[in-house]
Amino acid sequence: MKFYHVLLVTAVTFLSSADNVQSAIDSGQVQVSTEHTSLSRHPTTNDNIRSLRTVEADDDGTSEERGLEFVSKIGSYFKNNYNVSKWAAKGKSEDYVKEKLGMTGLQGERLKSHPKYKYFESFVIQEEAHRLNRWLAQNVTPYDAWLKLGFARADDLAAIKDTNDFRIYKRYVTEFDNRALHNFVAAGIPVPVSSGASNIEMIARATVLGIDKRSKFYAKMALGLDKLTEAEMVGHSNFVYYKYYLGVFEDAGKNKRTKAT
């Protein structure tokens, strides 16, 4: 027990700097205790002493190997997690991270079966969160996010709605609306309205408003219709998207009631 306690203390001491763990092990800086306390009350002969020393030596060697392997695994685990968090915060590309993790060129099942895939997966999740937070901090509009995600030439929502980039778009729009609604309620800040957005992006925008079941009041603000009279709103170019929002909103409500029954 003392042996593994020493190893654990040693590991925790070095984890404050993940890069030092492996180098410390390789250079022999990690010290482990090999002291034993005899509990035998029986007289021992010279042969017994020699035999006991042999067993102790063998046990010490095996325990030390297991201990160093244990510390090495801990060091590798924390070092990889530290690195992927650092790369995610810096906005490194997936190809960059694959290269660093020894996964260059891997795709599909070959990628998922790699021993370090869990670190790559962690990077992807963290990088996405950092990216969306940066966009929010920079007041990136939904249409700007649409362009950043490579949808400038998109003209068919059905063709992209199941892609990972569209999932990210929906996630960002939801967070954008959450913040915009909070700012409006808390400080009266007007809800930003994208200008010059493409027809397909406006349909996507209205779709997310409906899926998220935003209120009609908020949907009108998001589409720039909130200050118009009924007649003015019907004649506005964005009214078609408001009707699209209503359709999705109603469908979402029907689906929810159907699941409930």
Automatic annotation (TrEMBL):
It comes from the Eukaryota. GO terms for cellular component: extracellular region. It is found in: Secreted. Keywords: Secreted, Signal. The keyword Secreted applies. InterPro entries: RXLR (IPR031825). Residues 1-23 form the signal peptide. Pfam families: RXLR. Effector that suppresses plant defense responses during pathogen infection. The RxLR-dEER motif acts to carry the protein into the host cell cytoplasm through binding to cell surface phosphatidylinositol-3-phosphate. Belongs to the RxLR effector family. This is RxLR effector protein. It comes from Phytophthora agathidicida. The gene is PaRXLR9.
